[in-house]
Amino acid sequence: MISPSLEGKTVGMIPLGCAKNLIDAEIMLGRLAEAGAAVSFDPSSSDILIVNTCGFIDPAKEEAIRTVLSSHQERETSGREGRQKIVVTGCLSQRYREDLPSLLPEVDLFLGLDEVDRIAEHLAHLLLPDGGVRREAISSDSRFLPDFSSPRFPLTPSHLAYVKIAEGCNHPCTFCIIPRIRGRFRSRTISSIVQEVEALIARGVREVILISQDSTYFGKDRLRRDTVASASREGETLADLLSALDEIPGDFWIRVLYTHPAHWSERLIETFAGARKLVRYVDVPFQHIADPVLERMQRGTSEAQLRELLAALRQAIPGVALRTTFLVGFPGESEEDFQKLLRFVGEARFDRLGVFSYSQEEGTRSAQHAAQVPEAEKKRRWEELMARQKEVVRSQAPAWIGRRIRVLVDSPGIARSASDAPEVDGRVFVSPKLTPGTFAEVVVRGVSDYDLIAREAARVSSG
Fold first, then answer.
1. pLDDT digits over 218-229, tens only?
2. Pair (328, 387) in one structural domain
3. Any residues with CB less than 8 A from the CB of 284 and at least 6 apart, and which?
4. Domain holding 50: CATH number?
């Protein structure tokens, strides 16, 4: 590779997909800024336009392809054909590395997930007079893992930051293609994460959100099978990481996303209950409750285990907000299985809940299952389950009225409680006079499903 230099060039980025993908986009932009490129917030006028794609399920793939094609069309109509390069990165490139170059001739360069940290070298070469021939740099096995030293060009508000604690996945879930895209699970070290979070807090970040494909598996990939049982003594479990982060000075929240129900331990529950800066918010996708469906999904859990975990979390962590997701229309899901799930949602009374319709993804084992559920039936089940959860949420609404809660102000008039992760949960409508990026004490005066309406709490006199 040549020494990367992008002085005088502008780069635009269209980030698609989840927060894990967003971090990749931030690292790529950080590397490009290091190489002298100017980051443009008007992608259409940039010298290079990067579309960082998601390729997890059909709707995400369709969005990515539409974005690429519309970017090319805009390039043509604006007269930038031949002057603007379009680069496609992310999960779609990785997943369809053999097919996309011929299917999307409009794209100048496809890069895989392992090229995130080398993006500047690839783009500098692309801009050379003899470097414009379309090519691909996509390894068959993704191994890249960011470090605290990886530069980041923030795409989130200045008071909020996502931190990727691991990459990849080892789970055999039959509906999921992620292990084939992102590779085997690989954890960062606690010291690397602590250094990154310390720098973020010093920069003014007030909420740190830890993410990976399975945050509860953190550290276990570095243990030999005969030492898994003694993982707590190795000092590299999620509980150890959270304890270390809790010791960092400053006033900030720590939030953990994407935990797996099979990997919760008594020690981890105790850590959630005792850590001062860790919000009492548990994101734990159950996916289903009927044992026949869980077995076909190969989730490694059972109805009895999920019910036991739910009870343990609520008993040990007073006031915990529980968020989960369910998958309806999985191959072989009978009406009896669905009705059991419907009853469970009514009984379990989750604070936050998302529902997805099963997507028949090529390359997954469940895609080959003969008993596929018709689309109309999947839609009906999705609607019924969402309606049941709405009943739960509305029945819980009166308990919010009059409560004094702490919120983090995201933008003028909009805040979030500890029970709300960005983008996926509710909002708290507050006075626009409250300063974004700060904490505030408010009293809830109204409720609209997951959203709250609140006003600033009266300050208590000390004298």
1. 999 987 544 544
2. yes
3. 259, 260, 261, 264, 309, 313, 322, 323, 324
4. 3.40.50.12160
Give 400-416 pLDDT, tens digit per residue.
999 999 999 999 999 99
Domain count, the chain: 3
| Section 412-424 average pLDDT | 97
Q: Which residues make Cβ contacts (< 8 Å) with residue 59, sequence separation at least 6?
A: 359
**Is 269:317 a contact under the CB 8 Å cutoff?**
yes
In a domain, 177, yes or no: yes
> What pLDDT score was predicted for residue 463?
45
B/e letters for 171-199, b = 16+ CB within 10 Å, e = fewer, are bebbbbbbbebbbebbbbebebbbebbee
Cβ-Cβ contacts under 8 Å for 168 (sequence gap 6 or more): 142, 179, 182, 183, 184, 185, 186, 213
C-alpha to C-alpha distance for 104 and 55, rounded to whole angstroms: 15
Contact call for residues 324 and 285 (beta carbons, < 8 A): yes
CA distance 328 to 359: 10
Q: Which residues of 374-393 are buried (b: 16+ CB within 10 A; e: fewer)?
A: eeebbeebbebbeebbeebb
State pLDDT tens for residues 246-293.
Answer: 999 999 999 999 999 999 999 999 999 999 999 999 999 999 999 999
Residues 120 and 267 in one domain: no
CATH code for the domain of 422: 2.40.50.140
CA distance 362 to 184: 19
**182 contacts 142 by C-beta, under 8 angstroms:** yes
pTM to 2 decimal places:
0.93
Query: Which of 347, 377, 396 delimits the end of a domain?
Result: 396
- In the predicted model, is pLDDT for residue 295 greater than 80? yes
- Residue range of the domain that includes 257: 160-396
